[in-house]
Amino acid sequence: MKLEQIINNRRNIKPQFFSGETIPDDQIKQILASANWAPSHRYTEPWRFVVFSGVSRSSLGVFQSTLYDETISLENQDQGKRDKLLKTPCLASHIVAVIAKNTQTPKVPFVEEIMAVSCAVQNILLSSASKEIAVHWSSGFMPESDAMKTFVGCKSIDVLLGFLYFGKCDQKINKPGKRFSSIQSKTTWR
Ligand SMILES: Cc1cc2nc3c(=O)[nH]c(=O)nc-3n(C[C@H](O)[C@H](O)[C@H](O)COP(=O)(O)O)c2cc1C
Predict the structure, then answer these.
(1) Mean pLDDT on 154-182
(2) Which of 4, 3, 1, 7 is nearest to 177 (CA)?
(3) Tens digit of pLDDT for each residue in 48-100?
(4) DSSP designation for 190
(5) Half-sphere exposure of 186 toward its Cβ, with a 13 Å CA cutoff?
(6) How many Å lie between the centroid of ligand 1 and the Cα of residue 172?
(7) Which fold would CATH assign to domain 3-53+90-170?
(8) 179 HSE (CA, 13 A, CB side)
(9) The pTM is what?
(10) 36 CA to centre of ligand 1 in angstroms
(11) 5 three-state secondary structure
């Protein structure tokens, strides 16, 4: 596939559509290696990843559903949402928590570290799409909370940007998507 086709047909695929097949760890390592070639100002390379596989997937599910119980008042709890938090991690083969390290490098504002990590994530998404591996990008449950950051191993000074759920899929994963407005309407030429 040509790069442009991979970019245009890469889709966010929800774990409900995953087949349950386990992806070999080596393939996930190859995909993560593509993240390391993202650009970063002053070579800060601020992307950090924590991989959940095997039984650690269920510990993520138990942790986030317990956090839900503890933080959402009883009258506002939604059993469907809580159930999803508990069970969704085990629908994936691997889950990767994405962290932006605050390297505090002079002349590199933190927003640039987040931009660099976003580039690293796009490399991951495109590398996965080229291998027919489905990925779902989830913000996660309360990613800014101390409890979630501590669970993942994200320092308080750093930012937990979300979770990437990886899986195999029986259906076609690379396909046309939708956008609500054209690139022309988002571009000004001077
Ligand atoms: C920073 C970020 C956070 C996202 N968080 C979620 C999320 O929590 N839940 C979700 O269903 N999709 C999430 N997405 C995925 C978007 O919903 C998806 O990219 C969008 O619907 C466009 O679909 P496409 O990527 O297939 O073109 C997130 C995407 C980004 C970039």
Answers:
(1) 97
(2) 7
(3) 999 999 999 999 999 999 999 999 999 999 999 999 999 999 999 999 999 99
(4) -
(5) 5
(6) 18
(7) NADH Oxidase (3.40.109)
(8) 11
(9) 0.97
(10) 22
(11) helix
Three-state secondary-structure class, residue 107: coil
Q: What DSSP state is assigned to residue 24? A: P
For 165, the 3-state DSSP assignment is: strand
- Tokens 């991690």 label which residue? 89
d(CA 181, CA 28): 34
Pocket test for ligand 1, best of 10, 12, 141, 178 (most atoms within 8 A of CB): 12
What phi, psi does 163 have (nearest 5°)?
-130, 140
Distance 137 CA to ligand 1 centre (A): 6
Query: Ligand 1 site: residues with CB under 6 angstroms?
Result: 11-12, 137-139, 162, 177
Report domain extents, the chain.
Answer: 3-53+90-170
List pLDDT tens digits, range 4-22: 999 999 999 999 999 999 9
